[in-house]
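Lab notebook, bench 4. The sequencing result for the construct came back, and we need a structural model before the next group meeting so we can plan mutations. Quick request posted to the team channel:

Model the 3D structure of this chain.
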Amino acid sequence: MTDTSCTRNDNLAWVAGSDAPEKGRVNLGFMPLSDAASLIVAATQGFAQPYGLTLELKRQTSWAGLRDRLQSGELDAAHALYGQVYGTHLGLGGAPTEMAILMGLCQNGQAINLCEPLRRAGVTNADALVAQVRQRGAKLTFAQTFPTGTHAMWLNYWLAAHGIHPLEEVNTLVLPPAQMVRHLRSGQIDGFCAGGPWGALAVDEKQGFTLATSQMIWPDHPEKVLACTRAFAERYPNTARALTMAVLEASRFIDASDENRRGTARLISGGEYLDAPLSAIEPRFLGLYEDGLGYAWRDAHPLRFFAGGEATMPWLSDGIWFMTQFRRWGLLKEDPDYLGVARQVHQLEGYREAAEALGIEVPARPMRSSRLFDGRVWDGSDPAGYARSFAVHAHPSLTPLAADARS
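Done. Here's the predicted structure in token form:
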């Protein structure tokens, strides 16, 4: 990868005197996924040092383990699932820990894949899947990556929009993303929802096909975030700001050109990061998709790390959306203070300081409006009503949350 280090004299004031990071060495957790790229680039390509930071990358094997290490302080900050941060903050599936989102890391780039036996049986679209679910004696089994994570919510939303109740008509289990293809190959699961490169790898190895991408569900949807505990953000505010600036610069660099994206794909494919074939990373990294059914396309909403600051902005409405889905699926027994919780979690002032110092425009309002694939518009204005508006939802007798897998 081309050396990206350069002198940033305009920003040296941030590492001097009272603005100097309180903690110069930061343990930074990440999962082996394509959308961890901005953290890897920030740590290895000279983006952190000008801010007085050394980023120690710590690869994790499961989202549950990453969460536990954030809570214990073994990790200072991490690449995290949007919904996972909220679940941890709200105490869903464990003891609550006040959490902080420093910035968004990406939008788009996840996929729902089905297995090769279903392809051979002609189950290659939503209608055929519905028919299969209704006719089959035993339930199909789908894997996702964390009970309150984004992949659980994309899978639930997509199934429900097609009339399949995700809590009653199929079985689901939790697997680390890097184990998805192996479980698909062995026949232990019929499909999965996870981030790249694992969906593309299933296609490359002819173990499955991509039925839907997450950006088909919600174009430019929220995905991963840079997260830490609220205690860390409050104890080390200069460190949190410097970390945000370093990752913002790395995010902007990746999105600046296809050449930068290709170089980044080569970097993250290495054994210490994703340990996956470049052929499963680079095409979807560039927005080039093949579904394993003979269809190829250039995606209008590819994996984005920066997008002029839209992908990095910690939109309050994005966080509130996940809480509406927790309520919909019985993970929350009552409506929370949706906006109040989001304001606690999102470090908007710190993000604004970091972004403006880098000349990145920050929207005046921390809410945005989006239209999902079922025609519903989400703008954060009535979360309680939105959560109740779906025909397919959890029955009140369902338990709030099954224990999460710790594989």
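The longest helix spans residues 237-255.
Will bring this to the meeting.
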